[in-house]
Design a protein that fits this description.
alpha/beta, 5-stranded mixed β-sheet, binds 5'-O-[(R)-(carboxyoxy)(hydroxy)phosphoryl]adenosine, binds zinc ion
Length: about 350
């Protein structure tokens, strides 16, 4: 199969069992995603032990489906990539154990991938001409990072959340509003009908020079607002609360990202992670980016949320930079972006 690299990638960090086959770092031959959302919905969030068990039930099937859809066999695989962290320890272990077994049986290199790097690399799949450097905003259910990409796998961490992640804030506020899990997409949808200026929720900038974020105060402000309205016996307008909350989150995300890009004289902003699927965030970033003459990029919705294709892309770029893992590769539930 010429000298291009065919990667088999596995992602099991949370509630999606996913396996993908990629040619080099940007071409997806298959990307099978089996979501457990319906299983966890009735608990209002992901139950780690249930997630691990579901991954075990699904993983072999999903790997076979990914190979079949890509029209390749194990013999065609040159490289095995797998999420090492961050994520749920038991869930990650299922993916890592499978990846190690395959790498050992095929005698092919194994790459442990940082899940956050993976989210960013989804952009290399989506935008075939994208090259570093760029300014980067990663907004997922567990993480909120502002970074500068010096190279494909070399990220300078500039800012982070000091408490809740952006996606976590979306999910918690959604729960308060009686919406189901995951709440982010539902708040996004409701916001289109609501008035973003109806309620003046706080925008938390911390001090002037900080690129860090904080969303837990905003979450409390929403809760206090709802309790207050209820006490007064007034009616809660869910769509207005959703739209006003979303506006408070995205204004801060966009302001800080644009400021960093300006400071670095960078005219390319890349967004990644589940919250990068948010239409309000995409639109505001594009509007502000256009005013500043900056290019704004993000992956398609499917590649924003967890999937193995993004892990395959990151595995490839790590591999060509000379990084490989050995069979002692272990999960790192709190792995940081680096
Ligand atoms: O990146 P991801 O799939 O998983 C993690 O690595 O955490 O992100 C999931 C998060 C959830 O919090 C979900 O509510 C949020 O992304 N999310 C959204 C949207 N789609 C997913 N948040 C706001 N608007 C959306 N359209
Ligand atoms: Zn993720």
């Amino acid at each position: 199969m010429n000298n291009r690299i065919t990667t088999l990638a596995i992602e099991t960090s949370c509630d999606e069992t996913s396996c993908a086959v990629l040619r080099d770092g940007r071409e997806v031959l298959s990307n099978i995603i089996s979501s457990q959302i319906d299983v966890h919905k009735k608990f209002g969030g992901v139950v780690p032990e249930v997630a691990s068990r579901k991954h075990i039930e699904n993983i072999d099937l999903i790997i076979q489906q990914a190979l079949d859809e890509a029209k390749v066999t194990f013999e065609d695989i040159d490289l095995i990539g797998v999420t090492q962290g961050p994520g749920l320890v038991g869930a990650l272990l299922v993916g890592i154990s499978s990846a190690k077994a395959i790498a050992y049986a095929l005698n092919k290199p194994l790459i442990g991938v940082n899940h956050i790097q993976g989210h960013i690399c989804a952009n290399y799949i989506e935008h075939k001409d994208l090259h570093p450097p760029f300014t980067c905003l990663v907004v997922s259910g567990g993480h909120t990072y502002l970074a500068y990409a010096n190279d494909y796998i070399d990220y300078e961490l500039i800012g982070r959340t000091r408490d809740d992640a952006a996606g976590e804030a979306f999910d918690k506020v959604a729960r308060t509003l009686g919406l189901s899990y995951p709440g982010g997409p539902l708040i996004d949808k409701l916001s289109k009908e609501g008035n973003p200026n109806a309620i003046d929720f706080p925008r938390v900038y911390l001090n002037d020079n900080s690129y860090d974020f904080s969303f837990s105060g905003l979450k409390t402000a929403v809760l206090n607002y709802i309790n207050n309205i209820k006490q007064k016996g007034e009616q809660i307008i869910v769509k207005d609360i959703a739209a006003s909350f979303q506006q408070a989150v995205i204004e801060v995300l966009v302001d800080k990202t644009i400021s960093l890009a300006k400071e670095r004289k960078s005219n390319k902003i890349v967004m990644a992670g589940g919250v990068a699927a948010n239409e309000g965030l995409r639109n505001l970033m594009k509007k502000r980016g256009q005013e500043e003459g900056m290019e704004i990029l993000y992956p398609s919705r499917l590649l924003c949320t967890d999937n193995a294709a993004m892990i395959g892309s990151a595995a490839y770029f790590n591999y060509i930079k000379g990084y490989t893992s050995d069979y002692y590769l272990n999960v790192v539930p709190n792995l940081e972006l680096k």
